[in-house]
Amino acid sequence: MKTLHIALLVVGGIAVVCAIVIPCAILIPQNNTKAPAPVTTTPGKPGAEVTTAGATTPAPPDTRPVFTFDDIYNNKYSYKSIYPSWDESTPAQNDFLYFDGGNVTRRVIENPYDDVEQVAPDTLCVKYGGCRSWSVSADAKFVFYIYNYTKVWRHSYLADFAIWDVVKAVEVEVPGFPKDAQIHYMKWSPTGHKLVYVHQFNVKLIEDVGAATPTIVDVSPTDGMKNIKYYGIPDWMYEEEMVSTNNVLYWNTDSTKIAFLETDTSNVGLIKYTWYGDAQYPETIEIAYPKAGTTISSVKMWVYDITTAKLDQLDAPAEFSPPGTYYFSRFTWQDPSNCLVSWTNRLQTKSIGNLCVMSGTDTSYSCSSTTANMEEVIGGWVGSFGPFYPKWITGSNDYVTIYARANDGDATDGYWQLAYVAEGVTNFEWITKTSYDITEVTYYDATNKYVYYTAAYNEARRRHIFRVLATARDQTAPECMTCKFMDTYPDRCGWVTPSFNIDGSAVVINCRGYWIPMTLYITIDATGTWENEVLLENNTDLFTKVEAIKWPRKIYGKFPSPAYPSKPYNYEMWVPADFDETKKYPVLLEVYAGPEFQKIQDVWRKGFAQTYMVSTRDVIVVSVDGRGSAFEGYNFMRQVYLKLGQYEPIDQTAFVRYLIDTFDYVDASHVALWGWSYGGYTTSHTIGYDGGKTFQCGLAVAPLGDWTWYDAMYAERYMGELTTNVIGYEKASIVRGHDLNNFKNASYTLIHGTADDNVHFQSAAEMEKALVEHDVDFDDFFYADQAHSINVGNANKHIYRQIDLRLSHCLGRVDTQYPSG
Q1: Is the confidence at residue 409, as pLDDT, over 90?
Q2: Rounded CA gap, 194 and 297, in Å?
Q3: What is the SS3 assignment for 267?
């Protein structure tokens, strides 16, 4: 439930479901006195400020058209970004591979939209009726394509694969290769053209795709089976809550070994729900799903040696035993022989990285760790949705990772910082000592010994790239490599993401906002100096389109919460393009508020609430990062530990009360809130807590009703054990934590998909039963055969039309909450 699914966003022509936020503007006054209208940024001219403070006459009417409901789903306001798939098969460092849906071509980054040469034609994509995706072997001699794609869970899928021989220009025929649309995953080796794949829960290997008759080798130690045993792919819980991908399979650096996880779910309870489909009799879907307090899966890590056909198990730490009481978390190869496997205890308050070194004449593995490889947290959890990934120091078994570092003189607070972990030492050493959170170790420059990292700087809502020498210790002011772009390109480079080429001689920087995104290309000389900055993509067309309509303005602010006086809460406010402080505006609070989540981000968005509702319905949309939010120090983030559902409604309600008391343009008689997933959970809690005093209505999509119904890995990470936090679990429950009679004082809408594998329909059913028992009138409906995102077929448009009309009716903008006719 860590990711919020809200609306269809078109990025670079690709439609994805994502959380909604919207662009444009600057700070609002930070005190409790009545404030004038904010200073805003003119749409289309992000560097030019127009002060509306002190205005005494209404602004002239804006006659430009609005952002329409259909604009949520079309490509009209999409933008281009460049994330190159760097080509490892040539000596050049500026070329990358591109897939246009059929053909695979080679391009150079200086001219990123022009094909230089064709690598593979669209022959197989035409033959199989279209391709979902593709991958080129490391030597560029083969390409595989994915077709007959069927989504399974958030990241996983089933599909057929076809392999193309680039040199011979023919399809590769492998005897016994399955064509039953049951392949879960496939991956090329990092050198040459070996293939490993997972078919029907088992790991298979094609050692030489180019052989006259390629052969398939069974790698799994036993047979995998659905809801029993998985090899090379995660079960539902690991996929959703720990690895965030569709595979747990890892090639070593010279393509001689494959590591993979075994997950045994044979003793895990099954969640069952009905799939109605088109058949005369509905189908029952079963998923191994360990809920809070129940038996979790057992895991083992295996390494298969291709040369000797030997299979070795990598031991978990001795203190994590027996199986079924701990979790696998991370795996990475250092070189052909040595690797690091990270594990956590069940409550995820301690992580241990086991360094596994191959030795002896029988090439067996010895796994060990010291306290330097360990992190233990009191009053919280390790890492961010699991321990942070390590970055190896080239040529050694040393690595850099991120641990939580306490502030001097205040052990209760601190920031995520870089730690240097040397092989065999007792204690790690701190590389950084900054006053901001480090979020990712991005790249290691082995020539100049620079560690590049991403950090939430100089505001929590931003992301910038820094570097520091790996040999440095306690550095308080590492070098920011991208901060200068905030001045060079005002309002457009607050949040940047890098893509370093293979040898680190260049980097592509995607500036994601908050205003219109752009892409830069920078070369890096032998000494590590960044030079020759080139603007690759400016999205000029988007400027023109946005200027032509009533695109909302975005305002950042600080809310001084009396509940947490140590620091103000960050918030965003979206106001209409012709915002007039002399008018009254309804207010819609869009909420998520999950632990470790950050709603307030310097990124460009278009979507339902912050674009459509503001532009078309002429309302103000707001969001706030209250206690539990990430990237503002771990004291603030861990405030909700063992107390989910208790502080979120307090913070959200207090924030809206602050807006009502501070700004005359807020219409206190028309205030609504809504959210999806954890946002639906927070919405429901807030209605139960507020009881209609602040919010006239709330709309919740796919809310969790009780943490005893959710998966153990997520629930116990933040709530601890059921037996030791009985009161916490009770207060966290929507059906047990409030007087449900409070729901009688506000309009409440509950929406859920019947095939939700994440937050099960059980929550909606139990909440409905409890509300009915308390004689609460409310609006609820379901989406048959829809999962957590409710986005298959026409469902996404349908649900957003329902959300629009119900919220707009509550906000006084339409006369009915039901579609016309």
Answers
A1: no
A2: 31
A3: coil
438-445 and 450-455: which strand pairing?
antiparallel
Place of tokens 């023109």: 544
Helix (H, G, I), strand (E, B) or coil at 707: helix
Residue 242 makes CB contacts below 8 A (sequence gap 6+) with 234, 327, 328, 329, 385, 386, 713
Are 194 and 227 in contact by the 8 Å Cβ rule? The answer is no
Please determine, for residue 647, whether its predicted confidence score (pLDDT) is greater than 70.
Answer: yes
- Cα–Cα distance, 357 to 302 (Å, whole number): 14
Contacts of 498 (CB under 8 A, 6+ apart): 442, 443, 452, 454, 465, 482, 507, 508, 509, 510
Distance CA 681, CA 671 (A): 18
What digits encode the pLDDT tens for the residues 781-804? 999 999 999 999 999 999 999 999
The pLDDT tens digits of the residues spanning 15-50 come to: 333 332 322 333 222 333 233 333 333 333 333 333
pTM: predicted TM-score of the whole model, two decimal places: 0.92
Radius of gyration of the chain (CA): 27
SS (H, E, C) 566-580: CCCEEEEEEECCCCC
Q: Are 573 and 620 in contact (CB under 8 A)?
A: yes
Question: If you write DSSP's letter for every residue of 424-463 in order, what string do you get?
Answer: T-SS-EESB--SS-EEEEEEEETTTTEEEEEE--SSTT-B
Residue 737 pLDDT > 60, yes or no?
A: yes
d(CA 673, CA 229): 42
C-alpha to C-alpha distance for 131 and 81, rounded to whole angstroms: 22
Grouping H, G, I as helix, E, B as strand and the rest as coil, residue 207 is coil
Centre a 10 Å sphere on the Cβ of residue 800 and count the other Cβ atoms it contains: 22
CB 383, CB 351: distance < 8 Å:
yes
pLDDT band at 60 (very low <50, low <70, confident <90, very high): confident
3-state secondary structure of 193: coil
Alpha carbons 195 and 164: distance in angstroms, whole number? 13
Among residues 23, 80, 95, 12, which one has the least CA distance to residue 555? 23
* Whether the predicted pLDDT of 368 surpasses 60: yes
Q: What single-letter DSSP state applies at residue 475?
A: B
**Rounded to 5 degrees, what are φ and ψ at 553?**
-100, 145
Q: Is the dihedral of CA 149, 150, 155, 160 positive or negative?
A: negative
